Structures are given as structure tokens and as C-alpha cells.
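Help! Submission page says 'invalid entity' but I think these are all valid:
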Amino acid sequence: DAGVIQSPRHEVTEMGQEVTLRCKPISGHDYLFWYRQTMMRGLELLIYFNNNVPIDDSGMPEDRFSAKMPNASFSTLKIQPSEPRDSAVYFCASSPHPNTEAFFGQGTRLTVV
Amino acid sequence: GESVGLHLPTLSVQEGDNSIINCAYSNSASDYFIWYKQESGKGPQFIIDIRSNMDKRQGQRVTVLLNKTVKHLSLQIAATQPGDSAVYFCAERGSARQLTFGSGTQLTVLP
């Protein structure tokens, strides 16, 4: 398995634009997590899914952020409109069930100018 | 002006020495703990895990110790190598079934 695949690896966008980050979890993993990493706040959980259903989105900063998982092999995190303070590295991770480790993708480095 | 970022604890060790990285966790209900390693430009990578019914677990060159009384976790790396230089995070999983990460420790291996 190629692991968790995220795209793009880098994204530079202008303030106000819509940004969509993509994730393909490891096949067979029922849990998918979106994290954000910044120098200020470290690694923060934004939202996680179980069997494509959002379970906890309490970490989503505000309504500008939304996440979907239309099927078991694909998830998106969308920011609309984007702001400079959204600049961060966004990680997607998946795990087969709650009591095992989560496997992380390589991340998407987002820069909003 | 500049933003003030997290001040990562740092640990510098000589190549070949043993390293001990510590972590205090917050949730007494957490029942599963993981150590991750993150190299520059990469995602966190699993190193070792431990469940709350254990107090020690060993892997290849790594040992995790769990002290539930004081909510403390440690990672011991034997014979530290240059490739061990990275940021190390502990993570705990509580009843909400999600991982909460610590702020990380920067390990630097000196030649």
C-alpha cells in the first residue's frame, strides 16, 4: 500500500480564494482524521470520520472550514474563503480502528497570501 | 511583528548515547498512547505504542514507559543515531477515540 496520499503537497493561494485539500486513506481503514500543524498551536485535530461519517468536528476553526468524505477512499477539506491565518501544514491520517496507530500522509503546506 | 511560536523542548545527545524523551499527558481516562517521530517536511511516523494496562513496552532500540500515577510517558532510544534527529511527539487517545498530541521535543544527535 502506498500509504495515505495527500494532494497537493504545496498550495499557495490569495486571500479570499477557495482551497481544497485532498486525501486518499489507506484501503480498509475505517477512520480518517484531518489535522492542522502550526508553530503556534502544534498538531490540532480538526475533524474525524468513521465509515465516511463525520464523528467529531469540534476542532474545525469556523464555518469557513468544511470536510467531506463521499466514499471510503476519498476525503476533502475545503476552506472558503481562505485567510492568511489559515497558513499551516494540513495532515490527513487514517487508522483501521480506534485503538491502533494513525498513519499520516506527507501533508499539504498551505500558504495564503 | 513576528508571531511567537511554540517553544519546543530540545534534547541534544551524542551519537551512540541513549536518549530519553519525556511527556506529561493530561487525561487520566486515556487508555492508549503513541510515540511519533516527525522529520522535517514529513508527516508524523509511528514509532511505538502502549496501552494503559501495561507500564513498559520494547521495540527495536526503543522502549516506552508509562506511569499512570503521575500521567507520565517516556521514550527511550538506545544507541542514538544521526537518523534519529527529529521532533518526537507523544499522543494520547481518550474516550473520544481521537488522538491528542503533545507539543513535541526536538532531538538533535551530535556527531
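Support: the input was valid. A stray whitespace character was the problem, and the output above is from the cleaned input. Strands of chain B lie at 10-14, 19-24, 32-38, 45-51, 56-58, 62-67, 72-77, 86-93, 99-101, 105-110.
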